[in-house]
Amino acid sequence: MLTLELRDLDEVLTALANRGYQIVGPTIRDKAIVIDQISSVKDLPGGWTDLHDPGSYSLKKRKDAAVFGYVVGPFSLKSFLSPPRTRVIAIRKNGKGFEREPAAPQGEMKPLAFVGARACDLYALALDDRIFLEGPFPEPFYQRVRSSMFILAVDCAQPGGTCFCTSFGYGPKAQKGFDIAVTELCEDGHHVFLARAGSERGEEVLASLKVSESSPSEIAAAEQQAREAASSVPRHVDVAKAAAVLPDLFDAPAWDDIAKRCLACANCTMVCPTCFCSTVEETTNLTGTSAERWRRWDSCFTMDFTKVAGGNVRPSTKARFRQRVMHKFSYWLDQFGSAGCCGCGRCITWCPAGIDVTAYLEALCAGQGNGTR
Amino acid sequence: MNIENLSEILRQHPFLADLPEDHMAIITGCALNAHFTEGSMLIREGEIADKFFLLRSGRVTLEMDMPPRGSLRIQTVGPGEVLGWSWLISPYRWHFSARAVADVRAIALDAECLRTKCQKDHDFGYVILDRFVRLMEDRLQATRLQLLDLALLSPEVAR
Amino acid sequence: MMPAVETPAKNNSAPMMLYPSEIRRTLWETEDTFTLVLDVDHRPERYAFRPGQFNMVYVFGVGEAAISISSDPGKPAQIAHTIHRVGTVTSALAQMRKGDIVGIRGPFGTSWPIEEAKGKDVCIVAGGIGLAPLRPVMYELLRRRSDFGRIMLLYGARSPIDLLFRVELEQWGRQSHVEVIVTVDRGDSSWKGYIGVVTHLFSYLKLDARETLAFVCGPEVMMKYTLDELERRGIPPEQVFVSLERNMKCAVGLCGHCQLGPVFVCKDGPVFRLPVVRGLLDKKEM
Questions:
Q1: What's the alpha-carbon Rg for chain A, to the nearest Å?
Q2: Best CA proximity match to A136, nearest among C252, C70, C126
C-alpha cells in the first residue's frame, strides 16, 4: 500500500498519458458528474459530492477538497465499451450488388484509461464481460476496448442515497478487476490516496512514482472508512429470495400497482451499466450509393421492441416494466448465471417517477405489492 | 342388408363404442344403410331434419348459403364421425347443407324413431344426449379455433 | 437433465458480415407469400445449413429480416427463403427480381432434431407459413426414408389458395409410407379435401404416442392448440419440438429483442424442445 498525495495522483495521470492512454474520468458538466476526457486532477470534481434519492440527483459542495467524494453519475463504463452508437458495417453499392467494408471501424483508437471506477462499476464490468465476450459470438468492439483498458478504481468513502451494492456480496471497497485502486482519506487537512495495484500494469505505473509506503495509522483509517461505508449502505435487495419468488409472480396483480407510475421513458435502461439491449439501423447517404448499419442502444421499454408480424408481444407498459425486472432478477440467472444488477442505484435516482427497485422487490417478496412511494 | 350385419357395422362406429346391448338394439331398429355418390347432397339447409348419419367412409363438406356470394364451405366430416344433431332440437330443421365430396358410405338413423325411443326410455335418452353433448363441445371448440385462425390472419381485425 | 436441441455450429467468426447473393428465381406461392431462390454455388459450404435454421436477409438501403431457410439442405448450391410480405424489409424483398442482389448472413439458430428421430415416427404439424421451416425436414427425411418410421404431415392453411408448396404436397402424398393430410379453414367449390382446424386431422391418424416425435410450426395460436392436442394424444412433451419467432435485430444473442423469458429465440432457438418453452408460451405478454 502506497500513500500518494494529489500531485502524485496527477503524475499517475501523466504516466498513463505518456503510455498512450486516452484518459477518461469524472468531471462536472451540466450540473452533473459525468465521465469525459480528463488530463489532470484539476478536472476532477474536487470538493463536490452528489445527493441521490428516488427521482432526484443534485450536486452539493463539500466542506473538504476530496476529489472522489461522490458515488456515481449517469454514465458508466458501458458508454465506452458498448457506446450509444457503433458502426457495424459500411456498404457501397456496386452495380446491382454491393461491397462491404470491414466491420471494425477504421483508424487508430487509443487505449482507454478509466479513472474513478467504483466497486459497482467493476462488478457491472464482470457482468458485461459475460454478455459481450462469453456467448457464441464475442462482440469485437467491446473486446478491443476491454482488452486494452486500464482501470483506476476508487473505494467509496461513503455510499450514495440509492446504493445497494452490498446486497450482491461486494463493495463499497473495490476488490478485483482493477489495475490500481485508491482509497481517498481527506480529514483535517490530511488529504492522501492509499494506492494498491491489482495487476502488473498497475504495479508498473505505481513503481514509477516517488512515494512511500502507507503508515499503519493511514491503513487503519482506510479500513475504518471502508467498514463504515459498508455498514451504512442504505438500501437492500434479497437477491436470492427475489430469484426464488419472481417466476411464480409473473401474473401477480401487484404489477399493475407497481408499474402504474412508470412512464416507459427508458431512463433506467439508459443509465443502467448492465442493460445491453440494442438495435441495428440502416442509414444511407443522400444519393443512395452507400449505406451504413449502426448498432445503437435500445430499450425493452420502447413500444416497438417486441414488434412481430401481426402485432406486439408486450403492448402494455406494465408488461414492459415487468420484463425489465424479471430479466434482471430472474431470467439473467438462466442466461448468465447471476442476477443482472450491480446495486449502483442509478435506476432509482434517474427514474422521473421515483420508482425504487429495492422497495418494490421487497414488497413483491413479502407478497404485498405496493412498492411505490 | 340383414339386421345382424347392420348391428356389426354399427358396433364398429366410434360414436357408438361401448354402448350396452339393449341400447344397441334400439339404435339398430332405427338404422338403415346409406350410400351417396360424389357430389350428391345428404342434407339440405332449411329442410326438416328427419335423419342423421354416422359416416363409415368418404367425406362430406358442410356448406352454408351466403347470398350473394354463394356457399361457404365451413367444415368437413369424415369417416368415424357424426353428421347432424339438429334432429334433437326443435324445430328440427337443418342449418346447413352437406355434400359428399367423395363416395360416401354411411348409416342413416331415423330421427323420429330415435326421438320417440328417447322419450320412452330416459336412460337411453340420457346416453344419447350425453354423447351428442360431447360431440357438440368438440365441434364448438374446433369452430372457435377456426374463428381464431381466420381472425388472426385477417388484417382488418383489431388486436 | 434433457439433452438440448442441436446447437448451432460456430462456423462464423464475423456474424455481422453480409454476403451478397444473387436472386436466381422468385416464386409467388400465395397472394402474400413468395420464395426467393438464391445462388450460392460460389461458396456453398459457407451457406450450408441444417433444417430449421434461418438467415438474416438484407436489402440495401432498407434493412434486414430474419427468414427461415426453406430449401433442401442436401442441395446447398441454391438456398431458398419463403417470405411472408408483412413489413418494410419483406415488402422490399417482394419487389426484387431475378438478377437482383440481396445480402445474407447466417445460418443462425438451432435445428430440428432429425438424428433423434431415427427409428421413430415423425409427425409434422404445420400451419400457414409454418410449413416453410419444415420443408427442409421433409427433404431430409425422404432422402433417408428407411432411417425413419412413419412420416406424417398435417398441414392447415386459411383457404385452398393459401396453401404453400402445393406441387410438393401432392408429390409427397403420392410417395409410399408418407401420409400427407391437408386442411383449410374455409373451402371453395373445387376443394375436395378437409375443412377445419389442423388439430382435427389427428382424428384420422392412429398415432403410436411413445414412438412419435412431433415437429410443430405455425402461428402461435395454432401451435398452442396443436400442443394441447398432442398432449391429449399422449405424446411425451420431450418428444415435441416447436419453432418460435420473435423480433430479431442481431441474430447473435446480443440485441435482446428476441428474448422470451430466459431464452433467446435466435440462439437458444428457433427450434425448442417443448418443456423448455411450454410454460413461457402460456404467459400473456411475456
A1: 22
A2: C252
CATH classification of C19-108, choosing from 3.30.70.60, 2.40.30.10, 3.30.450.20, 2.60.40.1220?
Answer: 2.40.30.10
Task: Please give the residue of chain C at the shortest CA–CA distance from B154.
Answer: C158
Contact residues, B window 100-159, toward A, CB-based 8 Å cutoff: 152, 159
pLDDT at C203: 87
Nearest CA to CA, how far is B54 from chain C (Å)? 15
> Is A311 within 8 Å of chain B by CB?
yes
Backbone Cα Rg of chain C: 18
- Partners of B75 on chain C (C-beta within 8 Å) are 195-196
Between chains, do C63 and A97 touch, taking CB under 8 Å as contact? no
| Interior angle at CA B137, CA B106 and CA B130, nearest 5 | 70
B153 at C interface, C-beta within 8 A: yes
Contact state of A316 with C249 under an 8 Å Cβ cutoff: no
Q: What is the mean pLDDT of chain A?
A: 92
Tens digit of each residue's pLDDT (9 = 90 or more) over B89-140: 988 999 899 999 999 999 999 999 999 999 999 999 999 999 999 999 988 9
The answer to whether A295 faces chain C, any CB pair under 8 Å, is: yes
Q: CB pairs below 8 Å between A and C: how many?
A: 120
Overall average pLDDT of the A94-113 stretch: 77
Cα gap C141→C135, rounded to integer Å: 10
Nearest Cα of chain C lies from the Cα of A62 at a distance, in angstroms, of 41
Element (H, E) at C66: strand C63-68
What are the DSSP calls for A195-210, one per residue?
EEESSHHHHHHHHTS-
| pTM exceeds cut of 0.95 | no
ipTM of the predicted assembly exceeds 0.90: no
Q: Which domains does chain B have, with CATH numbers?
A: 3-152 (2.60.120.10)
Closest CA to A192 of A78, A64, A356: A64
Residue in the structure block whose three cell numbers are 437433465: C1
Q: Nearest-CA residue of chain B relative to C84? A: B153
Candidate CATH numbers 3.40.50.80, 3.10.450.50, 3.40.190.150, 3.40.50.11310; the one for domain C115-243: 3.40.50.80
Establish if B15 touches chain C: CB-CB under 8 angstroms.
no
